[in-house]
């Protein structure tokens, strides 16, 4: 297998990049966006202390911190998942170089990420390093019926290798198992067309080193695939796991499954677990002030996000924890958490479950900002609308009546923040209920219903008729 040695970055160039990255990030304010971190500690980022886990299938020594490539930075400084800005390849290169220098070796992407451009950017950045220094995970993201044929799915797989500049995939996933209408869609995407049989043959041939799936939605599909583990021999499975979803995922949304059940089912079969959404789309770094105070009382020098990452990494069956790190300070904070991991004690796990119980007092919409609902054909910024509502709900700025104490202040906070975070032409009043979005939502949110509810609420605030 080719290692592309002729294209490897030189040690001198690598160190120069590291120096530039350090200068570029010195003194930057911490940002709590996406799947990054909240306020980062001022401590130095440790080198040579990354925590690793061993994959029993292949013996891979995998970094506990995995780099999720869904949120690569754009040239405008935002995540490239948003708007139409191009990926900032130079910054991607710097992030990848810094991550590898500090022990990160697992990079997770998909043909669907960053408007179809994540794999190319990831391939450019990683191909500058020796092939044995990193593991690439990508996915068969054949969501659209137009990609369900064997020919279209095979072409997607081959294009992933081309974009990533590799001749084998370390970790290949069936993407979004359980989404849509459950078993019927799973059979259409992978069984009836022979795609899963093809991927199994590719694993046998060595072009796929590990084969697994990422789970969203219908637990019947999850249970079925585990019941066939003796046949498929899953090398790993990717699930959504964090301290809120551990016992409250189903309460948040009846179509979800508690992470405690998912993890235990996998651990009982010795199937390595890859964690996605350790911050629940950033919600566990953007918590309310009273929750921040409780976390800071225990660990004043550590970020709010570090608690969520410690939780995910503290379970021994976890192979790696994915974080979509758009900014260098996100990466640095997460490196501190896992270099090495300070495993949570039993008492600390109980403490986080108490935090989760407190958070459940707020009836938030379970949006993880994954943007699978986008783009909206009518230009509506669905995630921004839902996230603004959740933010105001958590901060006590969603008054139910004009007679409430502090109504005027809360009303202004909601309306001003809404207009600032969501352009008027992209607000909920433009939703016509076409429902092209809901079938793609891993959290099974009835998006048109929520758009109508939020728009009705906003209109009452604007007309001062609550």
From TrEMBL:
Q: Which residues cross the membrane?
A: none
What molecular functions are annotated in GO for this chain?
iron-sulfur cluster binding; metal ion binding
Cite the Pfam families for this sequence: Aldo_ket_red
The organism's superkingdom is given as: Bacteria
| Domain called 4Fe-4S ferredoxin-type: residue spans | 421-450
Alphabetized UniProt keyword annotations = Iron, Iron-sulfur, Metal-binding
The family database entries (Gene3D superfamilies) matched by this protein are listed as: NADP-dependent oxidoreductase domain (3.20.20.100)
This chain belongs to the protein called Aldo/keto reductase
- Which species? Candidatus Cryptobacteroides excrementipullorum
